[in-house]
Amino acid sequence: KRDQEQLTRFCVFPKVRPSESFKGLKRKGAPMAWRWTARRVLISLFVVAHISATILWVMPRCALRDRSYPVISPYILSLGLWQQWGMFSPDPFRTVFVMQADVTDAQGIRHHFDFPKMADYPGWEGMLRYRHPKYEVNLVPEYEQRLREFGARHAVRQLGIPAASYPLSAHLYFVHRLIPPPGVPNDPMKPSEIHTLGSYTFASLSEVYP
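Above: the chain sequence. Below: its structure as tokens.
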């Protein structure tokens, strides 16, 4: 009994009421619960907005898609998420194509330019250039004349033709071949086809740059 009295004298144990401790836990837990709820709401809103923008982008061209295009295009294009309806349609593209350009300068010298292809780069280097084939697919519709002229300007810039060789003309085209249907063997001797995208004339070097 004496030992117990000495222990009580030198050791002071705080008196905590059970109700007060639970109130403290509630006060600390309330902000965390609110933050977690807000985080879940924001994530859900982002997922819904992303899926909605993707669906509107890949659907066939219609009044709803045309009306929503100015709103969703900055998000889709800036992140490189754009696709074409042909990728999801019941009858997808059965064409393999590459884009090329032939440029003839004022001296009559012909210059050739091959646009980059993912197959030209190994491993991760090719994956980082996925935007190149997507850009070529976007030039397929006839109404994309502005993008086609932009591609011709890019080819001339990459060739580095000096200012003394202007004016010059640029011919932009696809070299494509059809993929045979399932079960039909591929004919390696079948020649590729040429599809012209446009011909452009640039009078001076300044016209080539944006």
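The chain has a mean pLDDT of 78.
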